[in-house]
Amino acid sequence: MLNFPLTKRKISTVSVTVLFGYFLTGCTGLASSNKKPVELVQGPPITDIFTPFDMALSCLKGQLRSDVSFSVGAILDQTGKDVVTNGGSGKMVTQGAGDMVQSALFQAGVSLMNRRDPRIIESEAKWGIRDPRQIQASDYYVTGSINSLDFIPGGGLDMQIAGVGPNYSQTRIMVGLDLSLTDTRSSKVVANVSLQKQIAAQDYGLSAGRFAGRTLLNVQIGKGEREATNFALRQMLNLATFELLSQVVPPAVFESCRAAIPPEFGQLNLTRSSVALYKYKQSQQQNGANSSSAVQELSSDQTHSSHEKNKSTNSPSKDTQPPKDTQPPKNKESEEIKNPEAEPEMSKQDLIKYISKKQRSSSSSQMNQEKGNNDKENKDKEEEKSSMLWDANPEMIENYWSSTQRD
After folding, report:
1. What domains sit in the chain, N to C, each tagged with a CATH number?
2. The dihedral sign for the CA sequence 24, 28, 32, 34
3. CA–CA separation, 159 vs 207, rounded Å?
4. pLDDT at 88
């Protein structure tokens, strides 16, 4: 009889423990029985992948020749780094870099051939249900590797006064890759790019420890931030794809598209296209200065000749120009680049001059119309202008735009 209250107290304690266990089961998502399924947690919704370089890639649509096809070869993980987690072991970087580059090329609007998995095409050709001669050959293909993954030693701070204080730590990972664009026919590398990025990770928090009598009360609050490694690699591959395409087209094509790249996400300063774009802008400024000085000289000559004419005829003079309706329409530079072979067959040097010509200003076009007797000087200026673009990026036209290199 004396032990009854004690037994009752034990039963009540067990009941509270069981009820608390059921409460935790509902909060943590654990099933109350092995025969019942666990309720799955619904996270954020599924979205499409967007990088800061997608706008620049989309800007190239319609600016590249449709008769030149691209394909993607092997883009391997050459870092040699593995990681071990609770779910098993695996590679630290993505193994699908080739598919990311293929998506970037498709977004740029180029003519793309799928060479990622040729087993279906090979099997159908062996079975005799597909003629291999009907398969379109690719003119250029992209290969490369993710070849560096370095852990940079970081630092931190942990300070406590009377058991209370903040803590902070930072680490970095540097990733590097190389991509090349190769001419399928000659196996010559026509474009190459090397990029690197530091992936940052940081942890900061606040800890407090106090004694409440003989009981130690310790509280820690913190937060960790780290860039997604594979998403950072996707951004690098998209930027590298844009750079490869920029190296095989004239600077006038990608100049406006490069401006769509946010500088806080990516910067290209020493690449081949950057140097070509810099020289192109320098030549544009020089030609603009020369044209402005020529317009000033022409206006002064016209003023002087009009005064002489007024003195001789004693009547006001009027500048005669052909009506606007009779003037030939001026083609946009994007249309010329999109259809470089719209005119009859030309020689190689004439094709280079044709692709390299730039859009003239309205004042310059009026000057050329009024000054019809100086055709020789205008022709010399055009030859000098085309030679400057040829010197800026000589292999650009040789490998991509020259029709003599294609069938």
Report:
1. 54-268 (3.40.50.10610), 280-319+332-405 (no CATH)
2. negative
3. 9
4. 75
